[in-house]
Design brief:
The complex is a heterodimer of chains A (115) and B (111). With 115 residues, chain A is an all-beta fold. In chain A, 0% of the residues lie in helices and 50% in strands. Chain A contains no helices and eleven strands. Chain A has strands at residues 5-7, 10-13, 19-24, 31-37, 44-50, 53-57, 65-68, 75-79, 88-95, 104-106, 110-114. Chain B is an all-beta fold. Chain B has no helices and eleven strands. In chain B, the strands form two sheets. In chain B, strands 2, 4, 5, 9, 10 and 11 form a six-stranded mixed sheet that branches. In chain B, a hairpin with a 6-residue loop joins strand 4 (31-37) and strand 5. The chains are: A mainly beta (115), B mainly beta (111). Chains A and B meet through strand 4, strand 5, strand 9 and strand 10 of A and strand 4, strand 5, strand 9 and strand 10 of B.
Chain lengths: 115, 111
């Protein structure tokens, strides 16, 4: 069964460093998402991406964040200058269809630790 | 702010007992999804409910969407230790499909 994959599974970085989190969505999916989950808190929406552009972003997704689909298969989240409070699990998700009831499939997540 | 209030946050029961988890909002959702999340992993979809009043069953799990599409419940019959985990509800409102998650219910079923 096709699945969303994410790399790395765990990333440790120093405050102020740039990180790139990578995702490979399911191949025929059209909608892509990033969510994050700070330890002990709820899963929060960061950004949605469709047709090679951001379709919606949350207040969390400020100028330090960017997303890209560089080659038609990978979907990346870049944090330019990490802060301590960026430490969280980051989940990528993809959805095939425009139908709102269509399932979003989540990857296993990347645990980002900012020291 | 679009909120989904999920309750209870923690639930510890004995094997064989029944339980219900609630997900409530003042907003109408196009659909509502229930996920289960294991530690260190991403959420895995259990079910999607779309129509007001809809009831779906998945073995011992029964999911219901409120008539007004503002609330949902998950009922587990005769819980087993294998049901232990974090259960999340998440609603969709707009065409972009972003999910708005509840806080989650941490369920522990003791043998």
């Amino acid at each position: 069964e096709p699945e969303v994959t994410q790399t790395p599974s765990h990333q440790v970085t120093q405050m102020g460093q740039e990180v790139i989190l990578r995702c490979v969505p399911i191949s025929n999916h059209l909608y892509f998402y990033w969510y994050r989950q700070i330890l002990g808190q709820k899963v929060e929406f960061l950004v949605s991406f469709y047709n090679n552009e951001i379709s919606e972003k949350s207040e969390i997704f400020d100028d330090q964040f960017s997303v890209e689909r560089p080659d038609g298969s990978n979907f990346t989240l870049k944090i330019r200058s990490t802060k301590l409070e960026d430490s969280a699990m980051y989940f990528c998700a993809s959805r095939k269809d425009r139908v709102l009831t269509d399932t979003q499939y989540f990857g296993p997540g990347t645990r980002l630790t900012v020291l | 702010t679009q909120l989904l209030e999920q309750s209870p946050q923690f639930l510890s029961i004995q094997e064989g007992e029944n339980l219900t988890v609630y997900c409530n909002s003042s907003s109408v959702f196009s659909s509502l999804q229930w996920y289960r999340q294991e530690p260190g992993e991403g959420p895995v979809l259990l079910v999607t409910v779309v129509t007001g009043g809809e009831v779906k069953k998945l073995k011992r799990l029964t999911f219901q969407f409120g008539d007004a599409r503002k609330d949902s419940s998950l009922h587990i019959t005769a819980a087993q230790p294998g049901d232990t985990g974090l259960y999340l509800c998440a609603g969709v409102r707009n065409q972009g499909g972003k999910l708005i998650f509840g806080q989650g219910t941490e369920l522990s079923v003791k043998p």
